[in-house]
Amino acid sequence: MKILLVNYRYFISGGPERYYFNIKEILEHNGHEVIPFSVKSMRNVPNDYEKYFLDIVDDEVYFAQSKKNLKIILKSFARMFYSFEAKKRFKCLLQNTKPDLVYIMQYHNKISPSIIDAAKSFNIPVIHRISDFQYMCPNALFYNDVTGVCEECLNGSKWNCVKNRCVLNSTVYSVIKLSAKILHDTLRISSKIDAFVVPSSFTLGKLVEYGIPKDKLNHIPTFFNLKEQNPEVEYTPFVLFVGRIEKQKGLMTLVKAFESTNYALKIIGFSNDGYEDEIKTYLAGKSHRIEFLGKKNFEEIVPYLKRCLCTVVPSEWYDNFPNVILESFAYKKAVIATNFGSLPELVKDKETGLTFAYQNVEDFRTKVKYMFDHIDKAKEMGENGFKAVLTSYSPQKHYEQLSSLLQSIKRK
């Protein structure tokens, strides 16, 4: 089968890109021809299709880091709303490669929903893998810095997004994102997609609540490709956090659980909005054993995963199947996670880790203490997580589920 694989980054910057390149490798290994479509960037992995890629709007990974001059803003508007340039470029690629179907990861903001219309003009089926809440929430997160988790746009007026200044804490940006969503809803973009791949049952439930037909939704959890079938690990007495240092990731709850204790915490990650400085200011003058290690690539993270006692995922938004949980399991480490959103689907309490009540510092601290006091149990839960990766989250199982969907969509 010839599959056109779409994502707005063709280099690894986070979980969606890791999935993109992993699934590309698996599809090719199983005999499929994979054609990429993305945006030009100096950081792109070399490929034979770069000439079809869209011209770059801005080379920053996150919009908050962009310089936002007039030229960038105008180009961003076109991509965010409906880009005829993207449609034309995508049509050219479709015409020259004649794929059997299109499998989209992320297209919002930096590519354009116009590529879906381009595919449909050739009667080519489109599958979209959901990694956020763009179809339901203008902010894509069901979260804002004022109210925290927010579902006001799910069943209520979408103008709540503007009232709450959900996008970058700005009325202007919130109006822009809402306007783009209204246009996409008017054009019935989501209804033109033949099938959706959804990593978690929780997110699938939200999409059903929003009104996406259930028969279009396919729960296919992500996977972890084990490089080491029996990794040698240690259980050194420190806890590890890996991820972006952002408010919705629960960093304040995390550091509060560790401050004034003798438990060591290492934080690997970065902040693109200055939130790390806010955390460090809070900790200034307080007794703690918290260490900030900065941004690292996955190869640099692995030694920490091999050595830590366990990892923590204290998310305070609807984290959609975070990769760090499977990465932890792959190195036989239990996970302490918020009992919230999709996380309990992955972290089975007292089986592959421990869960704690949402934003409950004392409960969180109690679960951390349990891990330090019962290292044998931490090892046992980590081993259970490793078995789950081998059985439930293997590349082969993911491919079998995805391949079945691709074949059924192609036959329609």
TrEMBL record:
This is Glycosyltransferase family 1 protein. InterPro entries: Glyco_trans_1. Keywords: Transferase. Residues 225-387 form the Glycosyl transferase family domain. Pfam families: Glycos_transf_1 (PF00534). Gene3D superfamilies: Glycogen Phosphorylase B. One of its GO terms (molecular function) is glycosyltransferase activity.
